[in-house]
């Protein structure tokens, strides 16, 4: 046990040293870039500006922001149901309150380039995927066990004209890695932290609803066409307690440091960043490596099939896990406040230790195209997760009534702004082969599921 703990600490030390070496190199400058200015958090649409009775609260919030303290509160509530298909049919309501605080340390204490961030959730309701559809491409990106949960808690220091940023604390990977700008419109959770990482990494990895202690280094600013991200996280945000990971780390306060680390790296190239430069786009290439032990999905320690009668029931141990991915975001049309963009993401990982060894999603989104509705958005997205040959081989060896192959999801969604800061989003999803194609109680493959939903989002 002592040797394992020493090895884990040594691996963390090596990872931190590598990040320090990366940070020591100068960031790439891009003097000709002409970026569009992103709206500060304090200027995001807020329902406080839409209701005169709440004007004093809006003023107090602005005064705090002027002093460097930005408070954000939002609520997402939704009704989802699958009248057809899935493990069984039903309707659920789930909701999530989020409270976030950002503290600009330059305004507060004269500490240039410093930012403190914390956010947490109050999660309510029942998850449709968990209880009814039984699919791996989770129907909702807010689905989680009901609880009050800390999410991120970190400090970031920027330097060299914001071209070097070092973030330390409890960090979520899904806020920066493997992210598609256009995929953010969709409700299905796989368009955020995809099933490719959420299914394969221990406890789902550092993606919603988990964040985990880590260090992230970023080279390049928002005005540079080239950015490089590298991070080291604790490799298991919940640990192995023999229960659901969300129960093991129910409140997001385990702050685990004893697990073999997870490293992630991503190179981002953005082009035509200015308003008048044409159709903007982003290309990202990334990878992850987890340095822990993983179970062979098909064979035991003596090479026999785990699902066979002669197996000793103990999976062979495989050292580490890794995967590669790419993301493309491309604006394809813009005109007088109207625009359209497409996105594509794909990832691949070894078959012997990953249930999902190949993943791809993509889609198209439109903004401001409805007459008289400049703030509305519409999108169509598709996702596909392939079940690895080893996992399917286990099904075959164990004489499962059906063999898992893949799961796919089609989503059509429309987000309508009712007033500034409040939107309604009707949504339709069609889930092909829930669970990758598992058997129902009668031994037949679970039927495809049709999901209908309505989401309300309020930003205060």
Characterization of this structure:
- With 460 residues, the protein is mainly β.
- It has a single domain (2-33, 56-459), classed as Carbohydrate-selective porin OprB (Porin, Beta Barrel), CATH 2.40.160.180.
- The longest helix is centred in the N-terminal third of the chain and has 23 residues, at 2-24.
- Strands 1-2-3-4-5-6-7-8-9-10-11-12-13-14-15-16 form a 16-stranded antiparallel β-barrel.
- Strand 10 and strand 11 (338-348) form a beta hairpin.
- It is built from seven helices and 16 strands.
Please give a quick description of this structure:
The chain is mainly beta and 460 residues long. It has 7 helices and 16 strands. It is 14% helix and 44% strand.
Protein topology:
Blueprint: H1 2-24, H2 55-66, E1 69-84, E2 90-104, H3 105-109, E3 114-125, H4 128-133, E4 147-159, E5 164-171, H5 195-198, E6 212-219, E7 226-234, H6 245-248, E8 261-271, E9 281-300, E10 315-335, E11 338-348, E12 356-367, E13 377-387, H7 389-397, E14 406-419, E15 422-432, E16 449-459
Antiparallel strand pairs: 1-2, 1-16, 2-3, 3-4, 4-5, 5-6, 6-7, 7-8, 8-9, 9-10, 10-11, 11-12, 12-13, 13-14, 14-15, 15-16
Characteristics:
14% helix, Porin, 7 helices, disordered N terminus, mainly beta, 16-stranded antiparallel β-barrel, 460 residues
